[in-house]
Amino acid sequence: MKTLEQLDQIRAQISTEMAPRFAEERAEGVTRHIMVCAGTGCTSSKSLDIIAGFQAELEEQAVADRNRVVRTGCFGLCAMGPVVLIYPEGIFYSHVTPGDVPEIVSEHIVNGRLVERLLHREADTGEVTRRLDDMEFYQPQLRIALRNCGKIDPENINEYLAVDGYQALTRILTEKTPAQEIIDTLKSSGLRGRGGAGFPAGQKWQFTANASSEDGVKFVCCNADEGDPGAFMDRSILEGDPHSVIEAMIIAGYTVGSDQGYIYVRAEYPIAVHRLETAIAQAEEYGLLGENILNSGFTFRLALRLGAGAFVCGEETALMTSIEGRRGEPHPRPPFPAVKGLFQRPTLLNNVETYANVTWILNHGAQAYAAIGTEKSKGTKVFALGGKIANTGLVEVPMGTTLRTIVEEIGGGIPNGKRFKAAQTGGPSGGCIPASLIDTPIDYDSLAAIGSMMGSGGLIVMDEDNCMVDIAKFFLEFCVDESCGKCAPCRIGTKRLYDLLDKITRGEGTLEDLDTIEELCNHLKSSALCALGQTAPNPVLSTLKHFREEYVAHVVEKRCPAGVCKNLLRYTVDPEKCKGCTLCTRSCPTGAISGILRAPHTIDNSKCVKCGACMDACRFGAISKG
Amino acid sequence: MPNCKTVVPYRGTQEQEDRLRRFLQDHKGQPGAVMPVLQEIQSIFGYLPEEALIIAAEEMDISLSELYSVGSFYAQFSFNPKGVHQVSVCLGTACYVKGAAEVLEAAEKKLGICNGSITLDGRFSLDATRCIGACGLAPVMMVDSDVYGRLTPDQVGPILDKYM
Asked: Which of A6, A53, B11, B93 could form a disulfide with A609 if both were Cys (CB 3.0 to 4.6 A apart)?
């Protein structure tokens, strides 16, 4: 266990060592910090080899004493990965491979010359940006939950201490801050739950603090079961800054009167699990977690529980059932978890991102937080930006930022000169926002007003090549697979909805089907047991509302305007362009193409299975689909 | 006729069982221990063998059906091991019309098992998959991450021989 003085000593010493990361210019004799992203994205493109490569190469070129390699969490620019950032200059290299390492060391590190070819280029203008802070991607962003991601080594508690880590906890425990004061701070900060529903966090803490159980046992849980396809906000926070979540959970335990916490994290996130295990062990070793924390008399233990691949376990009641070691099925509320949650005891359950905001609020004050965002949605929100967008990655913006800013400025627009068609927020529970609403400020209430929802933060961008009926079907298929089967509306309703959508994409739908779909959606919304079923119709209803003409084209004209739905596709040969080379005939797996050498060919659509092999084979662009 | 109900004989070693028993000792009586226990069994044996589940049920004093109920709920758990080599035959439309069914049948005959099953020695598991997007190569079979295209049924045996 460390004493308060020892913690302060570590803070002072390590923050001096970390100074180059925050310095403006390169001072002589300062140790360089070579930051390499070791988030899941960059790790899968060999960033661990890059880290090892730097270490070996620095030794090899005898400069290891003046240069440090630091493994970090996600910088956010996953599309540019693996990324390497060199301080104090702040030079940013993208798409680095292990093979580039010797050149970076000999050129940049030893000779002070930039490796021009690896510098980052803006997606839209192609201009070279040398420094991270100057990049268009970061300009409109404000990083609070992600404040330490990319700045510190997530597997080193000392670096977290050096950026004011465990400062809030130490202060609370030494000053014996009244629990109500902490709750009031959270309330006036306006922080709302970042898992999707947006319930005011302060109120949740208040309810749990007020609740009592016969044996006095209460629990604090963290929902890290991030299951939405296309969402990786929580993963990145856990990978880049696990201590910020742990510190907030300890403070939550102190505030609501609990001595046991659980983090329920997906088993599919091995790096996050490893970093959490490391962080918990380090915090215990320093006496910041476990028995009698910092000699204050307060005890709080923290355990991990791994999810086992069930989307429904992200729902709060199902999550707790799963921690109890049972089938992860939800149950009706009330009673709410704050009153009767895990093992029938009062339980505080917050999402990873919510916790990551808590310590910032306690360190900077409720006023500072409430100054950010819109009237009813305070602070910032992290989004996982994906789909048809140049800068795929992780972004954090103040609430109220418009979708346009996120897509065009931060995201760098749509690649290949295509047109923005829609954005899907909230995954299978959310809805599609059409291009006409691109200037909508993003916060909880404005998204709900246009039939979508904040959700946990997945933001998938779609262009003109995406079929909205197909997208709705995709999310429905996901919900059918993931429905736990406990309640009939969800078990049967999602399947029937899927069947209707499938019928439409096969070209067999009728206009009455559209009405049936709407009716079924509304029944599902009002009668399903948990949020999974209640929100499953959102992708369908929102696309039906904003893209009805596309549904009608499928039903009436038997046509898929985006050219996605295979059964409605027809491949045709342009006789003007066809040279009669017979390449397509030979590539066709079903013998659907006929024609003689050097004369235009034709496709028999009754035999065609729409695999597209002919289109790939044709060298003259003579085959088109539509 | 291929055997459609293969249950791979239990091959758990004493060492594996001891590892499991030690884990159970540490977790016995802990609230909510079922999931970590199942995860440990899967990590020790690669799947959830009935023999291991029986050990766990007895040690933890809960019913086998309860363990089965939890195990069958989550996608992560499997009651059958995967083969050392995983064979999959594409049954997408393009492959199907080019004779994927005959390719699958040839694989079933060669391995002596049904689609969805595993050989008794645990070397091969066989699955039919949805379109893998290699229609130009139809019909297609994959062994682990190797792709074999434009197959005729008589080519299947020699290909699988390479992995025997």
From this structure: B93
Which residue in chain A has the smallest CA separation from B93? Answer: A609
B6 falls within a domain = no
Q: Are residues A214 and A329 in the same domain?
A: yes
Domain interval for residue B63: 14-73
Task: Write out pLDDT tens, residues A255-264.
Answer: 999 999 999 9
| Residue that is written with structure tokens 């320093």 in the block | A286
- Locus of tokens 């849980």: A221
Nearest Cβ partner for A590 among B34, B36, B97: B97
Task: Identify from A327, A343, A484 which residue to disrupt to test chain B contact, counting B C-beta atoms within 10 A and taking the largest count.
Answer: A327
Contact A308 B138 (CB under 8 A): no
Instruction: Give the residue-averaged pLDDT of A452-456.
Output: 84
Q: Provide the shortest C-alpha distance from residue A30 to chain B (in Å).
A: 47
More confident residue, A540 or B82: A540
**C-beta separation of A407 from A423 below 8 A:** yes
Q: What residue of B is the nearest CA neighbor of A610? A: B94
pLDDT of residue A123: 67
What CATH number does the domain containing A400 carry?
A: 3.10.20.600
Same domain, B44 and B91: no
- Six-digit token string for A485: 């089967």
Residues 6+ apart with CB under 8 A from A240: A39, A72, A73, A74, A146, A148, A149, A150, A154
Question: Does pTM top 0.80 for this prediction?
Answer: yes
Which residue does chain A place closest to B77, by CA atoms?
A308
The answer to whether residue A583 neighbours chain B at the CB level (below 8 Å) is no
Domains in chain A, number: 5
Q: For chain B, what is the domain count?
A: 2
**What average pLDDT score do residues A406-422 get?**
92
Residue listed under structure tokens 């990590």: B43
CATH number at residue A493: 1.20.1440.230
